[in-house]
Amino acid sequence: MENADVGICRNPTNPAPTFHSHRHLGGVPSGCSLIIVISLLSPGQGSQTPGMLAPWLEQAGARDRIELWSKASGLDLERLGTTATAEEITDTAVTQPLVVATALLAFETLEARGLIAADTISAGHSVGELAAAAAAGVITTDEAVSLAAIRGAEMAKACALEPTGMSAVLGGAEDEVLARLEELDLTPANMNAAGQIVAAGRLDALEELAANPPAKARVRSLPVAGAFHTRFMAPAQDAVTAAAAKITPSDPKRPLLSNFDGALATSGTDALDRIAAQVTRPVRWDLCTAYLKSAQVSAVVELPPAGTLVGIAKREMRGTPNTALKTPADIDTLAETLVLG
After folding, report:
1. What's the pLDDT at 337?
2. Could you tell me the CATH number of the domain that includes residue 195?
3. Which of 22, 24, 125, 229 is catalytic?
4. Is 229 a catalytic site residue?
5. Residue 38: what pLDDT?
């Protein structure tokens, strides 16, 4: 239909079609059988907060799952997700499996309650791609947490090899920002949204960027251990690729977006190959958002620890309803508003 804000549904008791907004989360016309297509987003490193796991442990079977994933990751995820300090969970080797495990607890609850339709579009930011792959059925939740633990540990090791870092470049003309990064041999490691690029590379180059930023741009240093999604992570990519090779992936049962180019994975093997290669490739979240906009998704739902990706969606997908799942109570609210065919 030419008007993206108009959908069509058919009441099973009345074959005559009714036209109305397809973004009707709440106030649904009686008998409407229109399918609401949602995007399910999985956050990445930087989204973690102290105690973020605590509310999710009250879900049936959650502690058993966390115990299993703790053994797989070699970490006490329950303690790390409930009582550990902010500094402790900032460690890359800890953050990545902890964030993925937290997201997957919520995902398993959503799936058990039948709240995820077959056409739900799954996407994850950076390490969140592992949770997204599990949500799409490409790998199991157990495999996702195990891979996240390997990824986090190996990226932490790679960070120790050479002093590198990351800085957010906010504002400025995109072409001018990218040109300045190229001058300094820096990589646009994350292109999250309009006016929001994360530069990564050697610390001296980042200092020069901060001292002489592109016109109308400001630079903010990020508290990370190294230059993620750049060539400096090559040793970690090799380790993740080797670990991924031991997994037999399934073809996606739900659409799965890739950080590489904002396109859908064509097979399970393609998805896993992309995720492994992404350790050294820039995150193109801007392209993922562009795909979601073109797909005219009716709602954006972010798995915990939620907030970052919903924040981007509020700016880039204005008018699209969004839900940040921070506690199980948010799932109850979502269940009341989602209409699934």
Report:
1. 74
2. 3.30.70.250
3. 229
4. yes
5. 85
Measure CA 120 to chain center: 14
What angle, 0 to 180 degrees and rounded to 10, lies between the N-to-C axes of helices 308-316 and 285-294?
60
Give the pLDDT score at 77. Answer: 98
The tokens for 334 are 């979502």
Q: What is the pLDDT of residues 29-45, one digit of tens each?
A: 444 444 456 899 999 99
Domain of 206?
A: 164-221
169 three-class SS: strand
Interatomic CA distance for residues 198 and 189, integer angstroms: 6
- Catalytic member of 42, 70, 122, 126: 126
Low-confidence residues of the chain, pLDDT below 70? 1-37, 338-341
Catalytic: 24? no
Residue pair 211/202 in contact by the 8 Å Cβ criterion? no
Residue 89 CB coordination number (10 Å) = 19
Q: Establish how many alpha carbons lie within 13 A of residue 206's alpha carbon, considering only the half-sphere containing its beta carbon.
A: 24
For the entire predicted model, the pTM comes to: 0.88
Among candidate residues 181, 198, 221, the one where a domain is terminated: 221
Task: Please tell me whether residues 311 and 202 are part of one structural domain.
Answer: no
- CATH number of the domain that 280 lies in? 3.40.366.10
